[in-house]
Amino acid sequence: MKLLLVEDEKPMRDAIKELLIRENYDVTDLGDGESALDELLTGVYDVVVLDVMLPKLNGLEVARHARSAGIKTPILMLTAKSELDDKVDGLDSGADDYLTKPFMTRELLARLRALCRRNVQSTDGSLTAGDLSLDVAAATITCTKSGQSVRLSEKELRILEFLISNQEQMISREQIAMKIWGYESDAEYNNVEVYVSFARKKLHFIGSGMEIKAQRGIGYQIRRAHE
């Protein structure tokens, strides 16, 4: 689970990062809003912990810009203020939840788990796009039109999960490499193309009307075959 942590007070940032790493989050930590927005716009993160009071851009501005750009990554906003208006401002800016400092670490972890569970999932916990239903827990993809299902390898699963979770966006090869393999290199770029090809064959096998479309030099998007 890739998490972006944005907190300008380094001792607090280091403490939160250590906690999250112990909980098996893959954490990138930053201390200013401008760098945070650049990183958030990559679209590779599963969840963001975002402080309000930041240099360069505050957390409210980061959230607004990210939402305007179509980024749907869940945002947990941290604030030192507890007044109702401050909480409303955070939610109106695009945050999904807020936590007032000081907070208990158990509450932080519980709120993060809740955000990750609800992110673009249907009521039964699957991810859907057109006639596709992706069961992440079972690592299977089903065509609801044909009723056919097929098991996925780990990389196929993670690529389809990423594309379906961001189906309104074009996802670059670099974003997929960072999301799945954790860093960028020519080897990972080649792996992206190989596993996208495997995933395409699985969608064809189950008779889906959805395809993984490629746009040269830009990236991939999952959408209906004739769009």
Produce a short descriptive summary:
Helix 6 packs across helix 8 and helix 7 (173-181) packs across helix 8 (186-205).
Notes on the protein architecture:
By secondary structure, the protein is α/β, with parallel strands linked by helices. It has 8 helices and 11 strands. The strands form 3 sheets. Strands 2-1-3-4-5 form a 5-stranded parallel β-sheet, sandwiched between helices. The longest helix is centred in the last third of the chain and has 20 residues, at 186-205. The radius of gyration is 18 Å and the shape is elongated.
The CATH class of the largest domain: Alpha Beta
User: Which percent bin holds the helix content?
Assistant: 40-55%
Globally, the shape reads elongated
Question: Mean pLDDT across all residues, rounded?
Answer: 85
Q: Separation of termini?
A: 32 Å
> How many strand segments?
11
- Summed up, the helix count is 8
Number of domains: 2
Query: For this entry, what is the oligomeric state of its chains?
Result: single chain
Q: Regions with pLDDT < 50 over 5+ consecutive residues?
A: none
Residue share in β-strands = 15-25%
Radius of gyration: 18 Å
List the SSEs and their pairings:
Layout: E1 2-6, H1 10-22, E2 26-30, H2 33-40, E3 47-51, H3 59-68, E4 75-79, H4 84-92, E5 97-100, H5 105-118, E6 127-129, E7 132-135, E8 140-143, E9 149-151, H6 154-165, H7 173-181, H8 186-205, E10 210-215, E11 219-224
Parallel strand pairs: 1-2, 1-3, 3-4, 4-5
Antiparallel strand pairs: 6-7, 7-8, 8-9, 10-11
Helix pairs in contact: 2-3, 6-8, 7-8
Summary keywords:
single chain, 227 residues, alpha/beta, Rossmann fold, Arc Repressor Mutant, subunit A, 5-stranded parallel beta sheet, 4-stranded antiparallel beta sheet, 11 strands, 22% strand
